[in-house]
Amino acid sequence: MVSDIKQVPESPVGKTGTEDGNPGPHNPGPAGVQQETPAQSVTPEAPSEQQETPSEHQEAVPAQTAKNTRSLSWLLSRTRIWKRRALILVLRVSRLVSLGIRQIRPGLRFLWRSLLRRWRRSLEFRTVLTTLLLAVTSFAIVGAYLSNQIANNLFQERLAQAESESRFNVKQVQDTFDGAQVTDQSSVITLVYDTLTAVEGRGSVIQRRYVFEAAPEQTKPRNRWVESRASDQLTVRVIPPDLRKAVQSGGKQQFWASTQFPVGNEDRPGIAVGNMVTFNGTAYELYLIYDLNTAQQTLDEIQNVLWAGGAALVLMIGAIAWYVTRNVVSPVSHAAVVSEKLAAGQLQERMVVKGEDEVARLGASFNHMAASLQEQITQLATLSQMQQRFVSDVSHELRTPLTTVRMAAEVLFDARDDFDPMNKRSAELLYHQVERFQSLLSDLLEISRFDAGAAVLDAEPQDIFQVISHVMEGAAPVAVEYGSEVRLNSRQKSIIVEMDSRRIDRILRNLLLNALEHGEGKPIHISVAANHDAVAVSVRDHGIGMTPAEAARVFDRFWRADPARARTTGGSGLGLSIAAEDTKLHNGWLQAWGRKGAGSNFRLTLPLRQGGTIVKSPLQLEPADIEFPGAASERQMLVLDPESGSTMPSQAVGGKPQQPDAGAGEGS
């Protein structure tokens, strides 16, 4: 460490050491304490020049070392502090950036979704945006092509001028050098300077500069009086190396290359044209640099004009597309709005018709169609109301005489044993047909309530298995009559559903009786399953089945697949229609599947809570087999024995239910 040594005045106690200023044998010890020998003593009363004191050099070096140590420690501490502050600043900035991104991302996502929604729903927006995109793409392609062609043409023009002028100027320089009669250094320098200055300046169109450099590695004697010259403080570094190699090896040929050279604080594009010239037996490289800044400015102005004109043209195309599309799409949008209002029941809505063009004729035709539809719908609504009122009135009027007729039929039926065989048979037929007539009348009254909108849902939480058990018990006599076995398959023991138990009971009873009637004595399987938002009940028979077309019409009123088929169980032909209406009140699904010779399957799907929606039914409509999905050990079954007509619980084990008696038959 180098330290400064300052001269300080001698202290009153004198100094100790040798004459040359170096400390004597009495140097400070390791602890920096001055030691004293027996031969020397220092007293305050008699100061002497022989008294030992630290030298100036010994005082300055430790002081400077301590000062440097303190400076170094202070610098390290300040470095740590600033490093910690920089880290904190970086963390805060990154936190702010991440927070900004999180806040901007929802807005960008909302904007993107709005654009997609607008794209899907607006023909006008889609047409205008597509037109703009195509116009921008076309202009970008055409503009890039035109700009490239203009740039190439300008460059080729400037290059041809530069080559022509270079040949002429190089010939003049070579002629001047060949005819020069100079021998001293100053004359050579003056001649070269004047000749090159004459070459420099403006050409016919573009400004010209030069670089004059002695060729390296020459075998002939060289004139060392002229090494290099250049205009505007240029150097040979602005010349591309490839161009120099070509000029050095090309002899009298002329070469060119694109380059950049500094002018003030900017770099300008240019063309460097190189040739070899000789002077006094020495070969020199002469490069003429032509400034292309004016051509570049011209090209930039042309490109700016192209971009400005293209932007204006794109805006004009967009405005034209918007105007044309609006004139075409507006009537269509208006027609869509009017049609939506017509579909909502506002039959008096009409389109505004202007002019006599195709759009006006379309509007007139649309209004005519709307008027015709309004008239027909009004007629149908009036006829439907008259039919509903007629059915309701007739049904109500028939209840009183039908009650009287039924009472008389019951009296005759009870006394049929006292009649002769013909009258006995007549009493039995009268009793059964009156009962069937009363059932038909009840169904007609129920249908009239549905049509009038007077049906009300009385929903309350209840276990659906109780309703199913009640339906199975009620259908037991019919099952015994047909010899069909009814089985209930379920993985749950209890499913609570908010429902109108009376209407669900009627739906399931209609489905089960329909399956028994068409099941041809084969087993009937009732399956129950539930998910998080719905419960499904399917009634599967293996009888005559039906086609998909028949399954699509099975819920129509009074519809029968075979009108000539005789009914053995009676019925009004309205049971499935009423079941469909009851299902609609529950906001549920009632669907049918069938196949000729393979039976049919009816599936009822209900939401677990009133007002809920169904996403997916827990059971499939088209049954894969008669087995209920799930492990056999998890299935709970109720078996309706056709012989005894009773419902018995059984636990399925290994795919076969273990039953109390043999009359229950084999498990499904």
UniProtKB/TrEMBL annotation:
Q: Which SUPFAM superfamilies match?
A: ATPase domain of HSP90 chaperone/DNA topoisomerase II/histidine kinase, HAMP domain-like, Homodimeric domain of signal transducing histidine kinase
Q: Where are the transmembrane segments?
A: 125-146, 305-324
User: Where in this chain does the entry annotate a coiled-coil region?
Assistant: none
SMART domains named among the record's database cross-references: HAMP, HATPase_c, HisKA
Q: Name one GO cellular component term.
A: plasma membrane
Q: Which reaction does it catalyse?
A: ATP + protein L-histidine = ADP + protein N-phospho-L-histidine
Q: Which residues form the HAMP domain?
A: 326-378
Check the record and name the Pfam families matching this protein. Answer: HAMP, HATPase_c, HisKA
Cross-referenced NCBIfam families: MtrAB_MtrB
Q: In its UniProt entry, what is this protein called?
A: Sensor histidine kinase MtrB
